[in-house]
Amino acid sequence: MALIAGCLAVLSTQASAGPTCSPSDDSARILSAASRNAVHRDWRGGKHVGYGWSLQVDKSTRDATGTSYYVGDLYAADGSLSQRNVFVIENEWDCGP
Length: 97
Fold this sequence. Notes:
Elements: H1 2-15, E1 20-23, E2 54-62, E3 68-75, E4 81-89, E5 93-95
Antiparallel strand pairs: 1-2, 1-5, 2-3, 3-4
């Protein structure tokens, strides 16, 4: 019974996952919060994501000015998980259909 419940929990988590997105250009920022100025500490100093990187979107949010953000897990070009629960500005990323 616990096995069935565990499988259902995994399936429901996968089904609720959002789109996979890629940066629209090399100026896309990785943020630690829903704020244009909250550059993630690991992405300061001119570090940028490349076109091969992707974001698995978990949810979206807005700040007080109405700017939209995606929140999700960032994956490197080789498919490895780079960081969990990062914020990105929605219009800096392209999401597939």
